[in-house]
Design a protein that fits this description.
The complex is a heterodimer of chains A (255) and B (322). Chain A has 255 residues and is mostly helical. Chain A is 83% helix and 0% strand. Chain B folds into 2 domains: 211 residues, P-loop containing nucleotide triphosphate hydrolases (Rossmann fold), CATH 3.40.50; 84 residues, 2-Layer Sandwich (Alpha-Beta Plaits), CATH 3.30.70. Classes of the chains: A mainly alpha (255), B alpha/beta (322). Chains A and B meet through helix 1, helix 5 and helix 11 of A and helix 1, helix 2 and helix 3 of B.
């Protein structure tokens, strides 16, 4: 366990001693802030209109502000997380430091876990930034905190999938750009996979909805914890980590 | 301390290391000499546990590097050809990280790091970023990294490559100091380096071990005599004495023995072709002669492709630095 934490710690620090952490968190904060302002504005305008003309149902901060906002976060994650995972293995392979890790008395799995925890920690820090805006909402209104909690649980699991698959893709190359583009491509595809779902019949639709990485997030955003979705995300994470460890091992054999 | 038995490594169809065997005793410095691409790095990577061998067995400090990798790695320090430094860490951060992953207990960590930094003379660099170090210092930090968990065995891949002459002398001195408490394998393609630092030399070429001997003996063998390799089916006997009686033969050494077939290295006075007499002696002795080939040629070939003059090497390095 101490090995895993040593590697996780090293990973996290290396993000902050290179520009990556600052760029990722900086752009995330900027774009997220922009979404926040835009959605908040729309929300305020709508509620003013409702105040004037009297609307049917009452407005909900959770449903009409926080939920669309956090769903937009998934889009940001799609762009940001490949940048976090692209260097994990690719850079170690390019610079030769992978030889240090692989000749140290640690198992491949411990290395993979260390890198996974390190990248997830950076991702968590990124998400914490988004929490600041929501805290402000609590000062002026009374949003429910439970759906926010489930949405963040969903975001963590959603990001975990990106990280574990991103780690795997990073083991396949020495180039960070290749790792970035491949990770991005794979997840963009998993994102839009439902588009063809309706064309390929009811079974196909079911299948593509199940495979779609972002559809599983919807329930979390609504405040529903469904074990199906947790199972999906945990399976993808486990599978990604498994592939990563196997890929490192097979690289040893091939030399 | 280190035992390599019939290790073979293939990359796809390319055989990088072909059935090599050798041993290193405790406290010894073994030089691994061979031209570039001979299989030195591959062998060292197998010993360090970086990659498994395709066939064969390698043991370090009594642990099979493939069966019990963690135990073996705990007792091995490895310096790859390029020191595996993280550019964005300071020297102290780097060594602390290495000490953690190498399993140095937290109570001893500070002390161990201090010791190796003094030993490798990098104590004044502890807050310098690894990326800002000169080539010589990078190499020393690499060496410090391999020593931090006080391993029994040190595997150093070209530890003096790319250093200036002064640094080369210092590094060699350091390696010599480390022998005794550590068992060391170092690889090089520079001939004088071996004679200055190593007690024994394994010469490797195209993935095969060509000779194992002390540096002095090797040089003598190269200069004064010719060597034949004979593989004999001895029928349970021993042909050493018999081969020694052949006129012109100066020395007979049993090189290997496998399923009743014995390989001999036979040295003879230079300029005298003893092949006919050797063949006759074996056949007359009632044994089967399976192989007879001159060894001197291949050894000489390899020596020729090695850098024999350090000046040339130093000049090349100097140019590279500029």
């Amino acid at each position: 366990m101490s090995n895993i934490l040593a590697i996780a710690n090293k990973e996290l620090r290396s993000y902050f001693s290179s520009p990556i952490a600052y760029i990722v968190i900086g752009f995330f904060a900027f774009l997220y802030g922009y979404f926040y302002v835009a959605i908040l504005n729309a929300f305020v305008r709508q509620s003013l209109q409702m105040g004037q003309f009297g609307g049917g149902q009452s407005m909900s901060v959770n449903q009409q502000l926080i939920r669309p906002l956090l769903q937009n976060v998934t889009v940001l994650v799609l762009f940001m997380l490949p940048a976090i995972t692209m260097r994990t293995y690719a850079e170690e392979k390019r610079s030769g430091t992978i030889e240090l890790l692989l000749t140290s008395p640690v198992t491949d799995f411990q290395i993979v876990m260390g890198k996974f925890i390190g990248a997830t920690a950076l991702y968590t820090i990124m998400l914490l930034v988004s929490l600041i805006h929501l805290v402000v909402l609590f000062a002026f209104g009374r949003p429910e905190w439970k759906p926010i909690l489930t949405a963040y649980l969903g975001l963590l699991l959603f990001g975990g999938c990106f990280i574990s698959v991103g780690l795997f893709i990073s083991t396949l190359t020495k180039s960070q750009i290749v790792a970035f583009m491949s990770t991005f491509g794979v997840f963009l595809f998993l994102w839009v996979i439902t588009w063809i779902g309706s064309m390929v019949g009811p079974t196909g639709e079911k299948l593509t909805t199940y495979l779609s990485i972002v559809d599983h997030f919807d329930d979390f955003a609504k405040g529903v914890i469904d074990t199906t979705h947790i199972l999906y995300y945990v399976s993808v994470i486990t599978f990604g980590l498994f592939l990563t460890a196997k890929s490192v091992d097979s690289e040893r054999w091939r030399g | 301390m280190i035992e390599v038995q019939h290790v073979t490594k293939r990359y796809g169809r390319v055989t990088a290391v072909d059935d090599i065997s050798f041993r290193v005793e405790r406290g010894e410095i073994l030089g691994f000499l061979g031209p570039n691409g001979a299989g030195k790095t591959t062998t060292m990577r197998i010993l360090s546990g970086y990659m498994p061998a395709t066939e064969g067995k390698a043991t370090v400090a009594g642990f099979d590097v493939f069966e019990q990798p963690l135990e073996a790695k705990r007792r091995t320090g490895y310096l790859p050809e390029t020191p595996p430094l993280y550019p964005d860490m300071t020297v102290l951060e780097y060594l602390t990280f290495v000490a953690k992953v190498k399993g140095v207990p937290s109570g001893e960590r500070r002390q161990r790091i201090q010791t190796v930094m003094e030993r490798t003379r990098i104590a004044d660099m502890n807050n310098r970023l690894c990326s800002k170090l000169s080539k010589g210092y990078k190499q020393r930090v690499g060496l410090a990294q391999s020593l931090v968990h006080n391993p029994d065995v040190l595997i150093l891949d070209e530890p003096t490559a790319g250093l200036d002459p002064k640094q080369i002398i210092e590094t060699r001195q350091l390696i010599k100091e480390l022998a005794g408490t550590h068992t060391i394998i170092l690889s090089t393609h520079i001939l004088p380096e071996v004679s200055q630092t190593c007690q024994r030399v394994v010469i490797i070429n195209r993935g095969r071990v060509v000779a194992v001997d002390t540096p002095d003996n090797l040089t003598a063998r190269l200069r004064g005599s010719e060597t034949m390799y004979l593989q004999v089916d001895v029928n349970g006997g021993d042909a050493t004495a018999m081969l020694g009686r052949v006129a012109g033969v100066t020395r007979v050494v049993e090189a290997d023995r496998r399923n009743g077939l014995v390989g001999y290295e036979v040295e003879s006075e230079s300029g005298r072709d003893v092949r006919r007499d050797l063949a006759k002696a074996v056949v007359m002795g009632g044994m089967g002669l399976l192989e007879l080939r001159p060894m001197r040629m291949s050894l000489e070939e390899i020596f020729l492709s090695l850098t024999t003059e350090e000046a040339a090497q130093a000049a090349a390095t100097g140019e590279a630095v500029q």
